[in-house]
Amino acid sequence: MYDFEFERAAAEVKRRGVKRVLVQAPDGLKQFLQEFISRLSEICEVYVSVSPCYGGCDLEDERAARIGAEMVLHIGHKKFVGGAEKVHTVYLPAPHLANIDELANLAAHEMKERGFKKVGVIANTQHAIYVGDFVSALGTAGVAPVVDGETGGLVLGCRTDAAKRIEGEVDAFLFIGGGEFHPLGVAIDVEKEVFVADPYRNEVRSTDAARRRVLAQRWWAIMEAAKSRRIGVVVVTKPGQFNLHSAEKIAWGLRAAGKEAYMLAGDEIGMERLSAFPFIESFIITGCPRIATDSTQDPQRPVLNEAEGWKLLEFIKLGQGQRV
């Protein structure tokens, strides 16, 4: 189902004379790794990380160094931060292998039926290999496909430039991939409607209803956070998400506005961690922007990402969020 590029990984292990490797993968891909690990174990000692992996920014090189691994095989993502690795890391994107002809034609027909003239084609890492197939299907159906030349249409959970750069040229977007994580990230960042061509369900669906729901939640979080007096500013210490400078500037702005800002730091950030601070009324997380919107929803205490933290400061400055 996925191409883990075993031959490339094995060749790199042999070329560098590596004796021990650490394999890192998202939880959704770990279940498919048995053959890959078994074959790799014939040429070197293999450790597999049980920790979650959220992207190319989520590096395991410090843990790898601790167990004496000379190489990390990072599966499911592409390189995110230049020069951040302390242990040599090989990125294996693990493209999803499927016959998507029927889905591409279905998506092209749907776009034409809706009257779209130009459609932006985007995809996540596992499905970027199919961008060309969807471009062909759209063209055959009489719909002009548009793909960002710099990224090839690749979007990540926190990087949607492939869509934002071409937004003015298209009527809608067609995302290739499963789930809601990536397409919702795009839908929040652009004004055009985003559709999902899902190869796992073989269906095409709109993200519009989910987008409206998420945007309503985010504005609620900002407005509720503005009522808070005690706010926690969280620095994520993962190398690819570390942003101390921005966190300190936000904290300074909060204090200048009369708020109490508490500086927090950690690797894994979730509600189970934040719940240990009941005296803090809201939080701003300066790591991955999707931690706040996807992983730390709390109906009682708002959790903002960095961009929303800056919006909060603007809101407070306007005098609309002060306690009465």
Helix/strand-derived category reads: alpha/beta
Overall pLDDT level: 91
Poorly predicted tracts of residues: 320-324
Bin the helical content. 25-40%
**Using only CA atoms, what is the Rg?**
22 Å
Tell me the CATH topology of the largest domain.
Answer: Rossmann fold
Strand content: 15-25%
Which of globular, elongated, flat, extended, rod-shaped describes the shape?
flat
Q: What letter string, H or E per element, gives the SSE order?
A: HEHHEHEEHEHEHEHEEHEHEHEHEH
**How far from one another are the termini?**
58 Å
Kindly list the characteristics that best describe this protein.
324 residues, alpha/beta, Rossmann fold, 5-stranded mixed beta sheet, 13 strands, disordered C terminus
Topology:
Elements (H helix, E strand, L loop, with lengths): L5 H11 L3 E5 L2 H4 L3 H7 L4 E4 L12 H6 L4 E5 L13 E4 L8 H13 L4 E6 L7 H10 L3 E3 L14 H4 L7 E5 L4 H9 L3 E6 L4 E4 L1 H19 L3 E7 L7 H13 L3 E7 L4 H4 L7 E4 L3 H7 L7 E3 H12 L7
Parallel strand pairs: 1-2, 1-3, 3-4, 5-6, 5-7, 7-8, 10-11, 10-12, 12-13
Antiparallel strand pairs: 8-9
Helix pairs in contact: 5-6, 9-13, 10-13
Task: Tell me what you see in this structure.
The chain is α/β, with parallel strands linked by helices and 324 residues long. It folds into three domains: 6-92, Diphthamide synthesis DPH1/DPH2 domain 1 (Rossmann fold), CATH 3.40.50.11840; 101-206, Rossmann fold; 216-317, Rossmann fold (3-Layer(aba) Sandwich). Helices cover 37% and strands 19% of the residues. It has 13 helices and 13 strands. The strands form three sheets. A five-stranded mixed β-sheet has the order 6-5-7-8-9, sandwiched between helices. It has a four-stranded parallel β-sheet with strand order 2-1-3-4, covered by helices on one side. Helix 6 links the parallel strand 5 (118-123) and strand 6 (144-146). The radius of gyration is 22 Å and the shape is flat. The termini are far apart.
